[in-house]
Amino acid sequence: MTGTPDGAGAGGSGRGLAVLAVDDEAPSLDELLYLLRSDPRVGTAEAASSATEALRLLQDNPFDLVLLDVRMPGLDGLELATVLGRFARPPAIAFVTAHEEHAVAAFDVGAVGYLLKPVTAERLAGLLERAMPPAAAPGSGSGPVPPAADGGLDVIAVETGTTTRMVRREEIAFVEASGDYVRIHTRGGDRHLVRIPMVVLEEQWVPHGFVRVHRGYLVDLSQVREVRTEGARTSVQVGDTSLPVSRRHATELRHRLLDGTQGHLR
Fold first, then answer.
1. Residue 260 pLDDT class (50, 70, 90 cuts)
2. Could you tell me if residue 245 is inside a domain?
3. Within a domain: residue 187?
4. Residues 108 and 180 in one domain
5. pTM over 0.85
């Protein structure tokens, strides 16, 4: 099954992201095409029901983003993503699947997102927003952005030994920057190093009750026990951990706490 570009996503102008959806299940593919063509970020949306058909389309058309199911006959989605990664100008890759256990493998091949079926317009919009080439016209073929899980980063896949665990945003007390990575600290005291830049988490999680208190820390407001100021220094108590608060973030932190009636200021 192959969809044809209709330009509906950008007022029929053909501008916007060029997206290819690949899925061997026709109902899922039809629904995904409908959502794509209803989003203003999308200029053209096409479909393929197999990796072979997708590769044929990719040879003749430049796509900004390819959405892949994981389990397909022949080459599966992960194998196809590996092939696409060898292109001279590879498209961004994301997965749309019913199987959450492949998230880590998806991140390893550079996926920009991992949406679990059934997909909603809101979660798809978050993925498309991250796939948009920064400061460039759509269709520029820019490389992939950092990986995410479940579109809006509601879930992060972490590895603990031989086990892959899905950590939900609600389990996280604060996030610590660590170079190009971050270390997430759960409410239960666990720590996990993951390959997601702090700026991405800040953008996605601030609307869900998180606030940046320092260039190195993003905290869940509901976990703040107190904010303490001693001289020129301000710190915030998150659970049993005291974290520094930079001067530029102190005012916003207090306002957010007062607005949400969370925490105790002293």
1. low
2. yes
3. yes
4. no
5. no
